[in-house]
Amino acid sequence: MKPAVHCPSQNPLKRSNLKLTVALALAFGAAAQAHAQTSLGEVQAQGQTSATKPGDGFFLKAPSGTVTSIPESQLNTIQQFNPEATQAQTEITAGQFQSLDPTDSFTRGLENMPNVVVTSDGDSMNGDTVYINGFGQNLINWTLDGIPLNDNDSYAFYTNEFIPTRLIAGTRYFPGAASAAIPGLAAFGGSVETYSLNPSAKPSVSLLGGYGSFGKYNFGTLVNSGLLGANSGAPTSLWFYANKTHSDGYFDNTPSDQKQYLFKSVTQLGTGALTLFYTQNNQKFNYYGGCTKADYAKYGDTCNVYRGDPVVNGKQNGLSPTYNYNQYQNWLTYAKYEATFGKVTVSNQLYYYRGNGYGGGAYTNSTYNLLQPNGVYGSVKAPVGGLFMSHGINDTRRWGNIFKLTTPITDNLGLEAGIWFNKNDTTHDQQFISSTTGQYLGSVYKEPVSTKLYEPYFNFTFKPTDRLTLQAGLKYLKTERDFIDYAAVAKSKGTAGQYSSSFSTTMPSLGVNYKLAQGINVYSNYTRNSNPPQYNQYYTGTYNPDLAPQKATTYDAGVIYDFGMWSGGVDVFRVNFDDYIQSFSYTPPGATQSISILANVGKAVNEGIAWQNNFQIDKNWSAYANLGLLNAQFTSAKVPMPYSPHSTMALGGIYTVGPWRAKLGVRHTSEAYWTDFKSPIPAHTIADASLRYTWKGGDTVRGLGLQKVSVGFNVNNLFDKRYITKYSTGFPGSAKDPLIKYNLPRSYYLSLEAQF
């Protein structure tokens, strides 16, 4: 396994400082707003872009108040809709994230969306597996505050990194076609844009903690500085977050430790705002391998394939740094400056990512061919009385820059243009270590990969009338990749194992939105996506220099409606997926043994309907009802795509009265299939519930020096339903009898937050 490794509330300042405070609040809001809104390329009626119009937009409103106070309009709903969008788009509110268990991965915020599957290997804090419209998460574009997060080599995305649910302002979810203005890779299954909360102009210190099932607990703090330097030329507000989470693990030998540190500051500089951001994630956990049906019958549903080897596992439910052990250290930081000069808004975002970690395993073979420390490739014997311990190390350094310019050209024509550059260097190194001495014995492979990405784009938005919006965009992606396998070079004495490749592609998008009547808009969109081959084209059997990028053409059309109490949308979509890269066996002429080779042999069609509804019954009651219908299959092989159920349904409600807020949700997923296209993932229905009570003010609270106290209680899998989430191979006999992984049973979590 690879590592990837708010708006300020009014502050009681002096009247002379009020104007500055308001200006700062707008600057803070623009920092969260600008990337979300300008990425859509929307133009207001008089040619004014949304980036120059503070007060409009979901992400300006979402973090209003303090960093620990989300507006009721966001807490009392899970989804909102943009009536002027020219593509399918849902704004998942902070209300959805705030109702989750605070130790959950933030990707669980997607689980109520149509045609979405979210599963986890035992616990969400160790990572989720996400499928949208039949596409896995390495075929979905993920961003945080506008920064693409997918691994540049395999396009993998690791859900347990980057940001906790507590600090999320909201997510823009594009389940298919997306604007050319969204940077990133692998957007076949859509784009998921998540935005962090901004700091508050009001100082506070929050103590956080919780305890729940399977020995899970967390404790931490969130500090808001408040407005600093209000009378200076650079007024600033910032927050700092630190948290530790531990779980014993429900399944045998699956404990986990996670530490997170985050920082964000926003400074007003001239006509713009400078945002600084830092996140660090340190995590250790033992991997859950699953069990055969026979072992489940013998040991119960807590069975783990790793339980039977105490030599390398150590004590029960103790973190083992040897066998099934994973360790991650990940850092992401960025600096973004955005300012408006006249009618032109310019932003530049420089970022750096470091991921370092490994997955541990053990091998019982007596000898292995390894690249030894002395540079010689050859046979190495297992240590006397011990095993080969494996550390699959991956070390990634990635930096990039995103430049954007947004401006009206005429009163009804707007332009957004920019360029994304990304440089990624990763070393993949499977090291073998002596279990008795800890000595490094050599590497099965040692592969540095260097990737450069260049992606310029432009996006026009034209409003010939108040009712009609037209959008046209184009982005160009050029990828340069260099690869070395030092083990192969040593084995062949320099005749193999070094490759370079270059790919380029052009991706257009067209969209239209028309207002039929008050509260009813219709839209249609066409988007072309393309992805260069992953780096595995080099190490899978035989290198294929003719391997071409995968391509997808997305068509969608729909209606967005808002009748006050009832809002929602219906989207009909089709994705034609071409040149899908598949591995197959090939016997060269004159050879007696087959080899593996990658080739563009696959075609797929993903088509369906997504229907979303939100009901604001009154000030206390809101509800949602979402339905997804999906047909996703590889047309060339005539088999279904993995994790592509024919139907999903989600129903739920939120009740708010006084200090109480309760949420109950039920979601149903029909049968799907695992990656072998024949092992079933059975249909299942799961219910979750949450309840929160918040004390604000009052003599007791104020007497303790508190601004508020909040107590939350979450129940996941309310009715204790069990089902197979996935299968696992890679163990003796598992190719014919895959190991089974089940979902977690009913679990509880009690959380507490005290804000001073």
Helix content: under 10%
Question: Which parts are unreliable, with pLDDT below 50 for 5 consecutive residues or more?
Answer: 1-69
Report the C-alpha radius of gyration, rounded: 26 Å
Specify the CATH class. Mainly Beta
By secondary-structure content and strand pairing, the structural class works out as mainly beta
Number of domain modules: 1
Strand content: over 45%
Mean pLDDT: 82
What is the CATH superfamily label?
A: TonB-dependent receptor, beta-barrel domain
The overall strand count is: 38
The biggest beta sheet, please? 22 strands, antiparallel, barrel
The CATH architecture is: Beta Barrel
Shape estimate? globular
Keywords: Cell outer membrane, Membrane, Receptor, Signal, TonB box, Transmembrane, Transmembrane beta strand, Transport
Family: Belongs to the TonB-dependent receptor family.
Protein name: TonB-dependent receptor
GO molecular function, one term: siderophore uptake transmembrane transporter activity
Topology of helices and strands:
Layout: H1 15-38, H2 58-61, H3 72-75, E1 79-80, E2 90-93, H4 94-98, E3 116-120, E4 128-132, E5 135-136, E6 141-144, E7 147-148, E8 168-174, E9 191-196, E10 204-212, E11 216-224, E12 236-247, E13 256-269, E14 272-286, H5 293-299, H6 310-313, E15 325-341, E16 344-363, E17 367-371, E18 377-381, E19 388-410, E20 413-434, E21 440-462, E22 468-484, H7 486-492, E23 498-517, E24 520-531, H8 536-539, E25 550-562, E26 566-586, E27 595-616, E28 621-634, E29 639-640, E30 647-657, E31 660-669, E32 672-673, E33 680-681, E34 684-696, H9 699-703, E35 708-716, E36 724-728, E37 739-742, E38 747-755
